[in-house]
């Protein structure tokens, strides 16, 4: 997808702005605090319904304004014009997609595929399991039409089961929710397995380009229970006493995780922050490629503060790859980058919340 127009209103220090982005690399340059990241946050909001710097009500709306608004136009894979608009007050939102009101924020997010690489993205490989589960769920949400419904069914069963566990209610109701939980959880896991298998060749290809000396040794999914030894229903039964004592469900796809191991790192020594960022970026770019393979459409890629912690050689490799693939990228930085030489670049100067195309 190529966003051809982006209107922003009352996002952080940006009162009103309109950008006409180019199809390739869009570079947002300006001093610290100018408002560059705010533009990326607005796009991320359309793709995820939230900011990557906290909740909307925690400062995304310009001080003194009642609500923020974002509007974007793009062409989809079949070159059809699409448009999306979102107004958010911090507690309530209204959304329009192709001229129609939408009932769920998820409908907007499904239309806009956005992949964001930002200063905390290294958490994808060096933090807890939450971002890694979200990574899988995001990919599946965009390529498997029924995944969202299955995921919602699972989350509902988990909530109900946890409520019963908290109330120490081990009666027939718990049996019924165990059944529902297992029925919803098993297919979720199978989807994740299939997705990881589909992702692997892309991860290999991206790693080959970004980190050629690493070599992928394994890309493994842990189900969240001892899936090779028992069904989810059996795992629930086995863990029931423990779950009742703890008041929550300790096994299931909500405890799943994945890891990527490299031939060059047999002892799995900890990554430097820059290495963690590169591995995280490789995973995100693999996800972009898989989405393209599955849907015939590239996501939009946001690279916030890209220059920090990635050396020039790696920046060059990343930007070359994105350029070769013809992906639309929004990149923010305090300075322009030498690595953009020879690429099709649309540049914007950002200053005190004002955005001007650079001539
Ligand atoms: N709710 C708000 N209302 C008004 N201004 C805000 C609000 N939240 C943040 N700001 C201001 O917006 C600016 C933040 O912009 P942003 O983080 O997008 O800058 P940036 O250009 O990405 O900076 P850096 O290069 O330092 O990362 C800051 O000047 C901040 O004071």
Automatic annotation (TrEMBL):
Q: What is its main location?
A: cytoplasm
Q: Name one GO molecular function term.
A: ATP binding
Q: Does the keyword rRNA-binding apply?
A: no
Arranged from A to Z, the UniProt key words for this protein are:
ATP-binding, Cytoplasm, DNA damage, DNA repair, DNA replication, DNA-binding, Nucleotide-binding, SOS response
Q: What domain of life does the native source organism fall in?
A: Bacteria
Gene Ontology cellular component list:
cytoplasm
Binding-site positions, ATP: 30-37
- Keyword Coiled coil attributed: no
Q: Where in the cell is it found?
A: Cytoplasm
In its UniProt record, which GO terms are filed under biological process?
DNA replication; DNA synthesis involved in DNA repair; double-strand break repair; SOS response
Q: Outline the extent of the RecF/RecN/SMC N-terminal domain.
A: 3-334
Cited Pfam families: SMC_N
PANTHER family linked to this entry: DNA REPLICATION AND REPAIR PROTEIN RECF
Function (record text): The RecF protein is involved in DNA metabolism; it is required for DNA replication and normal SOS inducibility. RecF binds preferentially to single-stranded, linear DNA. It also seems to bind ATP.
Q: Which family does it belong to?
A: Belongs to the RecF family.
Protein name in UniProt = DNA replication and repair protein RecF
